[in-house]
Amino acid sequence: MDITRTAAWFFIIAVALAFLILAQNFLIPLVVAGCIWFIINSLSGLIAKVKIGKSGLPMWLCRTIAMVSILGLIVFAIEIIVGSVNGMIAAAPEYEENMGRMINEVMATFNVKELPTMTQLMERFDLSALAAEMGSAISGLAGSLFLVLLYVVFMLLEQSTFPRKWRLMFGTRDTRRLAADVLDDLNQSVRNYITYKTGLNLAASILCLVLVWAVGLDFPVFWAFLIFLINWIPTVGSLVSVSMPTLFAIVQFDSWTPVTVIFLGILAVQTIMFNIVEPRVLGKLLNISGLVVILALVLWGSIWGIVGMVLSVPIMVSLIIVLSKFESTKSIAIWLSADGFVEEK
């Protein structure tokens, strides 16, 4: 009986993984839309707490303000990225000259006789194919963004029916109570993760903004925004946050001093915020094992790419909560958790 049950579980997991991979073009926009819908509702709940006189704003107005605010942030982010990329393209000749100078210094240091020139290196790339691929990627991104926004609009229009549908899914009072507990725990855990993670990422990006602006790195707002976004990816985000501004500093400056300051400064910020502060703050809230975070990052990254990496922690936290509510799966939740006390979370 146990062997049959184990085989059945392996079969279910294999089918689920295959579905997640094969249907990712359908699932990823839907999941992203669900995340945006959740953020809009959380933000509208905070706005509703603001009192104007003796009463607050109506909920429809709170949701409208929240949605307009998020759309405004998306437009602002696009403007930052496009403006910074155009600026980098315009300054490319200067960066190429600085990079050539740095390469000559390295060659002289290690006694290297000859390296390929920039022209020779560029000739090895098929720029037309690269441009076509980038154009296709941008078109796909625009189409996905429209689809995501369409999903969000319909979720907001129909969300008044969600509580009734959720109750009707469960026949008995006990199952309804259990489902309500699971939903409340999921809502609270994901909301806490988004709130505290946003705060940590924002603090790290502001500190890095001050650092790169003081040193004189070009496009400081772009790098701060990139650090804010990329740190949503566990572990990998910190590595990218340190390496990309440092590599750009090597191209921009003709001295190693500002490069070293940027590298050490951002490394210090990332180490303090995400190796010391974040484990203490989120570890108590989420109760998820550090090893599980790494494994989830690899698993969901291989399934859904960057989107999977960003969502890996919320997905695993939700899985721990669901598994902990049933005696047959509680042992799995205990192993996935940080301290094993899943009943108290």
Walkthrough of the structure:
There is one protein chain. With 345 residues, the protein is mainly alpha-helical. It has 13 helices and 2 strands. A two-stranded antiparallel ribbon has the order 1-2. Strand 1 (51-52) and strand 2 form a beta hairpin. The longest helix is centred in the middle third of the chain and has 43 residues, at 173-215. It starts with a helix and ends in a 9-residue tail after the last helix.
Topology:
Elements: H1 2-22, H2 24-48, E1 51-52, E2 55-56, H3 59-90, H4 92-110, H5 118-123, H6 127-158, H7 162-168, H8 173-215, H9 220-230, H10 236-252, H11 256-286, H12 290-324, H13 330-336
Antiparallel strand pairs: 1-2
Helix pairs in contact: 2-3, 2-6, 8-9, 8-11, 8-12, 9-10, 10-11, 12-13
Overall average residue pLDDT: 81
Could you give a short account of the major beta sheet? 2 strands, antiparallel
**Poorly predicted tracts of residues:** none
Distance between the termini: 32 Å
The number of distinct β-strands equals 2
Question: How would you briefly describe this protein structure?
Answer:
The protein has 345 residues and is mostly helical. It has 13 helices and 2 strands, in the order H-H-E-E-H-H-H-H-H-H-H-H-H-H-H. A two-stranded antiparallel ribbon has the order 1-2.
